[in-house]
Amino acid sequence: MSSLKKMSLFSFFTGAGGFDLGFESTGYWHIQFANDIHPVMIETLKLNKGKEVLPGVTFLDDANVSHQNVAEIDLSKFINGKKIDLFLGGPPCQSFSVMGKHSGFEDKRGSLVYTFANLVKKFKPRAFLFENVPNIKSPKWKEDFHKYCEIFRADGLYSVNDFTLLCADYGAATIRRRVFVFGLLASENKLVSAPRPSHFNNQLPSLFDQEKPWKTVREVLEGLPQPSYKFSFPDLHFAPLHTPEVIERFEKLLPGQTDHKRKRDRLSWDKPSLTFMAGGEAGGTRNHIHPQEPRELTPRECARIHGFPDEFTFAGNKSQIAIQIANSVPIPMAKAWGNHIYEILNN
């Protein structure tokens, strides 16, 4: 499919680009603009830009990659009077995360959700998709979240709905949950819905005939060699060098059990991974423990769990790489949205 037939997409708070790669992997979307303020994220985007990271998918091909404060961007020079099909954004979630300071919408990072809303209101793409942590809808911020969604509905401009989705239900090997706010111009006169699940927990009855069982850790880690114990780039298949005490503790853990000192859980081969929790750049990102070996997962194993192909690499030090992966939207979840929104707009 040529780029002329693809729908136009502007990406904000792009991070490492998982959301974008998922949309690109559908073959339906042309990412024209991608932005992040963090220099390491920009380095990751540029490391992979122009690479065929999936068959037939050239990451960010001819996109303008912008390293600016999103509130200060003169977006009109990139849009140049054209009608954009989709604005995509995952503003920083630390202000709402269960691991964060719970500073919410008033925090400097939390208030960036309003920056995204202002861009949508100003440039009026046919659709927008916003992603964040489920905690943004917690009782503490329920009223603020409702008011936030009303910003898009003001003056009858957008039809809006929000969805809390489980990534495992869409083919990702993780039980990560995310909130998505999806809006369509009211003039489109179309139903604002979520993608239909493609996978199911095979310990429960399936709701749809064509669903497949949840993807497991075993499936996505299959074929990886033994890791290095030194920093290894660009493959990033290196494991922490634990102390004998930590190794002894990890060896005693059964799948599903927790090491309470390091607050990591041992994964099961035959289930999806638990959610990765992003910490700060000084460390603290929760990568979990390998199902069989007495060690935490390597960055490459984490990236595979989120659906990144091995051809995709990440810039930065160990902590920065872990944060980028943990904060990313799993590729299968993003791909499901990419297919779904294309079908709605193209119908």
Distance between the termini: 18 Å
Q: What kind of sheet is the major sheet?
A: 7 strands, mixed
Approximate shape: globular
Question: What letter string, H or E per element, gives the SSE order?
Answer: EHEHEEEHEHEHEEEEHHEEHHH
> What is the second-level CATH architecture of one domain?
3-Layer(aba) Sandwich
Uncertain spans: none
Structural class: alpha/beta
Whole-number average pLDDT?
91
User: What is the CATH superfamily label of one domain?
Assistant: Vaccinia Virus protein VP39
How many DSSP E strands? 13
Strand order of the largest sheet: 5-2-1-6-7-9-8
CATH class bucket of one domain: Alpha Beta
Describe this structure in words.
Helix 1 (18-24) packs across helix 10. This protein has a domain at 3-202 and 330-346: Rossmann fold. It is globular, with a radius of gyration of 20 Å. It is an alpha/beta fold. A seven-stranded mixed beta sheet has the order 5-2-1-6-7-9-8, sandwiched between helices. The mean pLDDT is 91. Helices cover 26% and strands 16% of the residues.
